[in-house]
Amino acid sequence: METITHTNHLTLTIRDTLARFYTDRLSSQVSPRTLEFYQYELTKFRDRLEYSGISNVDEIAPDIIRSHMLELATSRNPGGVHARFRAIRAWLNWIWEEHEIEWRNPIIRVKPPKVKTDPLPGIPIENIMRMVKACNTGLAIRDRALLLCLLDTGARRAEFIALNWDDINFISGDVFIKSGKGGKSRTVFIGKRAKRALGAWKRAAPKHEQAVWTTNTEERLTPNGLREILRRRALSAGVPVPGPHDFRRACLRQMILNGEDAITVCHYAGHTDVRVTLRYVYQTDDDIRKAHARSSPVDNWL
């Protein structure tokens, strides 16, 4: 482990700079989810530093950050490791800019973790339909509607559980996302089958609640609650347990396979870059085989 010494010593504690960094992000009007991201990731890093006896910013050396990234890689996927790195980088860059520190920022000497950009598979549609059929106990009406709407809208987890009844037009199928990623609003849609299932849930749902997705105690569903519903229904259906984002991947992938262009799907997803959307276009050999059957140069020559 390298040691660091600094001239023009400035004592900045980790806890104090973190608190002021969060205040700065809040005053910059980042979304609540972005602030929550910083708080979660940096609290984990702070705990690791304090466990090593590090309480001041000037004690953070590049090797400490590298070691933390290596440790994290044993329990997180590359995307999760990169997320932690981005949070640390944002915090340290803010400190150096805010205090005009003369010595070198340690994050400059740490290479960002590599993130794979391979297409991401979603949950197979047939697995979702098996989960829907398995909704025959408990809050079956709610869960059937939840699974179909989660797939049809392709909404992010936080967007989905934040929905209120006033956000849904049952005539047109419009579903208004008030505050998506980056604070941007957009409209997604549900088709006839999802509307019928959601209409059945609305008739059975608590009448005094604005929240669309509620628990058996009539409270708004939480992220953990959503994951638990998916877990229980997957186990009942005998399929691998998916995460909420797997439904989003499945939605966008299926839209592409059904003939929608990438730009349209990009807007539907609320992505700012079509390259992000294209990561969702995971094609199996069977997908490619069917595409060739439709467009074979030889078979379509005559």
- State the low-pLDDT regions, or none: 1-9
Morphology call: globular
Tell me roughly what share of residues is in helical segments: 40-55%
Structural class call reads mainly alpha
How would you characterize this protein structure?
There is one protein chain. This protein is 53% helix and 3% strand. By secondary structure, the protein is an all-alpha fold. A hairpin with an 8-residue loop joins strand 1 (174-177) and strand 2. The radius of gyration is 23 Å and the shape is globular. 26% of the residues are buried.
How would you sum up this structure in a few lines?
Helix content is 53%, strand content 3%. The protein is mainly alpha-helical and 302 residues long.
Task: Please specify the SSE layout and strand pairing.
Layout: H1 14-27, H2 32-51, H3 62-72, H4 78-99, H5 125-133, H6 140-153, H7 157-161, E1 174-177, E2 186-189, H8 192-204, H9 223-237, H10 244-257, H11 262-269, H12 274-278, H13 285-295
Antiparallel strand pairs: 1-2
Helix pairs in contact: 1-2, 2-4, 5-6, 5-9, 6-8, 6-10
